[in-house]
Structure formats: structure tokens, C-alpha cells
Amino acid sequence: MKKQTYPFTLIPLPYDYEALEPYIDKETMYYHHDKHHQAYVNNLNKALADHPEYHSMTLPELLKSLSSLPKEIQTAIRNNGGGVYNHNLFWAAMTPQASNKPVGRLAAAIDDKYGSYNDFKAAYKKAALGRFGSGWTWLVSDKTGNISIISTANQDTPLEANLKPILPLDVWEHAYYLKYQNRRGDYIDNWFNIVDWQQADILYTEN
Ligand code: MN
How far apart are the C-alpha atoms of 15 and 95, rounded to whole Å? Predict the structure, then answer.
């Protein structure tokens, strides 16, 4: 998925719309993927259409060099390129066959940094609740493998800060409103039941 270049396409969900029930409902998954995510893909392609000099760049390459892009497309790439990239990571971060606890080297790093998985969850939830308005919460790592929890506004990505995404959580209302309405905290608690910790460990350990 990281190798895609213009024109970008909507990556299919790696499971059925209803696969993550009861934690995330089928209707939310359908609108979130087929409508919201698709719109980011369409608008990203629209922004790049008249700029062939960027057609060979991957999404991470574009998002790491936002400040060097022409002014007239910078915001569109930030919002829609970020939207495509973040959602690609988000679908892959969830699974109906969840382990319900971290695995591999990432499990050790989480224990080292936060003391326990429960303490990690509390810190991650706090960051997710603390994001005012729309945005994302992330477990990220830096070049030395040090992990941390950050939050980004809108569709901003950790790539700009040179951080590697390990575990993203979408806290835009469109991610949970149909089932949870204003109860973001319940959405976060339930979401931990479908985290794909294998995938998070792969992102953490790969170069
Ligand atoms: Mn979303």
C-alpha cells in the first residue's frame, strides 16, 4: 500500500463491513470506508491532476515534504493525502481476530515505557479524549525505537514530525457517531478489543 502513486485508488477493507461488530458497526464501516475515505482519494487525485511532477511520488513521500509542495496544492495534499494515508493505516490496524494484548518486541517496549498494557491503554485513551474536535491518536516511534503517544489535528500525520506510525485511532465523529453519538470514551474502550497487535508489531519492527 505504501508503493501507490498517482492516481491513487481506494484500498479495499481487509475484512467485511460487519467483521468488527459489535465494537464498530457495519453501517459506520460502510460510510467511513466507501464514502469518507473514497472522498479523500478523489480529492487527492484532483489536487495532483495538473501537477505531473508529483505523479511518481508515494503518499509518504508527499506527506514528508508538504512544505516544499506548491502553495496552491499544499493544503489539499495535507488534508486529502493525509486522509488517504491515515485511513489506509487505520483499517489495517484492526482485525476481527484480535489478540487483546500487545505482542512481540512492541509488547516489551510498551511494558518498558508505560509499566503495563493497562497503563498504556489509560495514557492512549487520555490522549484520544483530549483531542478537541477532529483528529487522530497515535502510538509512534522515533528513529531510535523510542515509542510515544501523540495526537494530530484533522488529517495531519506523524510523518511530518519524522515519526513512524505504529497504531492509529481515528477520533473524528464520523468514525463513531452512528453507534456511540457523543460517547467517544466508550468507542475508545471498545476499540481496544479489535486492535491488530501483530500488525502494530510489524510496523514497529520494520525499517
Ligand atoms: Mn475517518
Answer: 8
Taking the centre of ligand 1 as the mean of its atom positions, its distance from the CA of residue 109, in whole angstroms, is 28
Q: How far apart are the CA of 135 and the centre of ligand 1, in A?
A: 9
Ligand 1 centre to CA of 183 (Å) is 16
Q: Which of 58, 92, 126 is at the close of a domain?
A: 92
Total of domains in the chain: 2
40 Cα: distance to centroid of ligand 1 (angstroms): 10
Q: Where are the beta strands (DSSP E) in the chain?
A: 135-141, 147-153, 164-170
> Are 198 and 138 in a shared domain?
yes
CB atoms within 10 A of CB 68: 8
**All three cell numbers of 8:** 491513487
113/189 same-domain check: yes
**If you measure from the C-alpha of residue 181 to the centroid of ligand 1, how many angstroms do you get, rounded to a whole number?**
15
The whole-chain average pLDDT of the chain stands at 97
Q: What is the pLDDT of residue 3?
A: 83
All three cell numbers of 35, joined, read 464514502
Q: Is the pLDDT of residue 2 over 70?
A: no
Domain limits at 132? 104-205
**C-alpha of residue 90 to centroid of ligand 1, in Å:** 8
- CATH number of the domain where residue 200 is located: 3.55.40.20
